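RECORD TYPE: protein structure
NAME: DUF4191 domain-containing protein
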Amino acid sequence: MARKSNAETAANPGRLKQIALTYKMTRKADPKVGLIVAGVGIVTFGVFLAIGFLIGHPVYLGILGFLVAFLAMAIVFGRRAERAAFGQMEGQPGAAAAVLDNVGRGWTTTPAVAMNRNQDIVHRAVGKAGVVLIAEGNPNRVKSLLAAEKKKLARIMPDVPVHDFIVGTGEGEVPLKKVRTTLLKLPRVLAGNQITEVNDKLRAMGDLMSNMPIPKGPVPGRGMRGQRPR
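PREDICTED:
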C-alpha cells in the first residue's frame, strides 16, 4: 500500500507539469486561451448558482455547478489545445505520421514507406478498411509516389481495398486535423485474421524506412510511440 501511495504521489506532479507545459504551448498559439477557459468556468458556475438561489438550494446547485464548470473548462481547454497542436504541426514533414500514431486500436501504421529527395512522403495504415496510403508534400509530386505504391500493393494483394489521400488544405485534400476521422469513417471490410495476413505480406515486402523528422510539441491523443499493431 505504501509503495502504491508513493507511486501515485510521484505521478501527480508529473501530470501537473504536463498540463502546465501543454498550457504554455497552447498559449503561444492561442493567447486568449486562459481568459476563455476561465470565462467558461465562471459563467457555468454562475448559472448553476443563480438557479440554486431561485429554487432555494444554492449549496447543492453551487456544488453541482462547480463540478460542471470544471468539466466544461477541461473540454474547452482540450479542444483549443488540440487546435493549437495541429496548427503548430501543420506543414511540417512527418506531421501526418505523428497523427497516424494516435489513430487508435485496430490500426497498424508505418511511416515513410516512400519518400523522394524533396521530402514528399507516403505513410501507410492497415486496418479493417484495408490499406490506406497517406501522402504529405507537393500534390503534383506525391501523386507519382502514391501511384507507385498502389501498383506495388496491387501486385501482392489484388483483393485488398487500397485507399489514398493527400494531407493538405487544397481542393480534394484532407486537412491534418481530419486525418484520424477520415480513416475511422472508411468502410470496414477486413476481419482480424485478414488484417494479420496483410501485415505479414507487407512486412515480407519490406519498406523504405528513413529517419524522417517528427514535429515536436503536444500531439492530440496518446503520446507518440513506435510502430505497433492497434
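COMMENT: Residues 1-5, 208-214, 222-230 have pLDDT under 50 and may be disordered.
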